[in-house]
Amino acid sequence: LVVERNRLRQTIDGLSEGIAAVDAAGNVTHHNPALDALFRALPRNEGGERLMMIPAPDVWADFDRVVAEARTVSRRLQLPDRVLGMTITPLTNQDGQVAGAVGLFLDITESERLERTRRDYVANVSHELRTPLTAMRALIEPLSEDMVRDEDTKKRYYAIMLRETLRLSRLINDLMELSRLQSGQLSLAPKPMCLRDILDDLTEKYNTTAQERGLHFQMRADELPQVNANPDRVEQVLVILLDNAMKYTPEGGQVSVEAESDDEKVTLSVRDTGIGIDPADQPYVFDRFYKVDRAHTGLGSGLGLSIASELIKSMGETIWLKSAPGEGSTFFFTLKRA
Ligand code: ADP
To answer: Which end of the chain is more exposed for a tag (fewer CB within 10 A), N or C?
Structure first.
């Protein structure tokens, strides 16, 4: 008997799920360390053995109900630091009478979070796909019914359709890039590299863009030590940051790239004198699909910065920003010196 009892005790104590059992009178007969850990964060007031163990009167009311009504109760428990799944089942003796109840408590915080992320993701993707499709449909319909006779209007419609198609391709490319990144399929192999070539290429490209948009563009990076990174990915991050800087800076503004180095790392920054980002929005700009101006559907998908941040994190580096509304934004990221 003793051997049997100890074996049962060890099994219960070893479970990662929390367990509590009561007898027919509602007194606790078993509980395990996992249970204590799950409820650790709840404050305890005096109130008898039961409330010292699980300081939630509604849980004990459920136990009592299971014993009284001989039926299983299953529900979700929201605690300050986590979400639990709880199932309390009646225990019966040989005569089929209720002899108590056993409650099983499972930490489902992570699975709930994943489920919510998945739901948000699907909703966001659908929304982003629908917007350009709706726009295109509204133009294709009158065109296909021969309702648009004027050549100029036709041309304008085709131009919008082309732009929306490009937007869709960009969105799908971004989505695939993100999923490749998250599944670890993207090559990030670092090697000693020189930033000079990349920065020179970018200067050439963005000088033209800046001119077109009436912005001043400056590359302020003279002293550039070698870094240990993946050139394609570094360029990708810079392109995302520079595209944003140009997108969110009105005519006449300035965009610049700077580099600063210490013994260990080089910090690259992309600075603009644009619209800036409100402090309340700053923590979220690296999230997937986050756009400060939700209504401004024309500008982007809200995926650029999340790709940049995933890339930087996968390389073991950091990315952050400083910004003030109306004054401009600066995005920084580090690269280890070779
Ligand atoms: P998007 O494709 O919408 O630009 P991002 O992920 O690149 O998506 O950026 C997320 C949001 O952060 C943008 O929608 C914009 O509101 C804000 N943002 C990013 N860069 C800047 C910037 N340089 N200046 C002002 N706002 C910015």
So the answer is: N
Distance 112 CA to ligand 1 centre (A): 28
- Kindly report the protein residue whose alpha carbon is nearest to atom 11 of ligand 1: 291
Candidates 143, 241, 244, 154; CA nearest to 198 is 241
What are the Cα distances from residue 214, in Å, to 26, 170, 202, 247, 293? Answer: 77, 25, 17, 12, 23
Expressed in angstroms and rounded, the spacing between residue 38 Cα and the centre of ligand 1 is: 40
Q: Which amino acid is at 210?
A: A
Rounded to 10°, the helix 231-247/304-314 angle is 150
Separation of alpha carbons 265 and 252, rounded Å: 33
Q: What's the CA gap between 266 and 334, in Å, rounded?
A: 6
**How much is the pLDDT for 295?**
63
How far apart CA 288 and CA 131 sit, in angstroms, is 17
- Other CB atoms within 10 A of residue 178 CB: 17
Do residues 159 and 135 make contact, with C-beta atoms less than 8 angstroms apart?
A: no
List helix spans (H) across the chain: 2-14, 33-38, 48-53, 57-69, 109-144, 151-182, 195-213, 231-247, 304-314
Residues with CB under 6 A from ligand 1: 244-245, 248, 272, 274-277, 285, 290-293, 299-306, 329
Rounded to whole angstroms, the Cα distance separating 19 from 86 reads 10
Instruction: Kindly give the distance from the C-alpha atom of residue 302 to the centroid of ligand 1, in angstroms, as a whole number.
Output: 7
* Ligand 1 site-directed mutation target among 305, 307, 332, most atoms within 8 Å of CB: 305
The residue whose C-alpha atom lies closest to atom 7 belonging to ligand 1 is: 304
Q: Are 169 and 205 in contact (CB under 8 A)?
A: no
* pLDDT tens sequence across 221-242: 888 899 999 999 999 999 999 9
Low-confidence ranges of the chain (pLDDT < 50): none
What gap in Å lies between CA 229 and CA 192, rounded to an integer? 6
DSSP state of 191: E
- Calpha distance 89→93 (Å, rounded): 13
Q: What is the pLDDT of residue 189?
A: 85
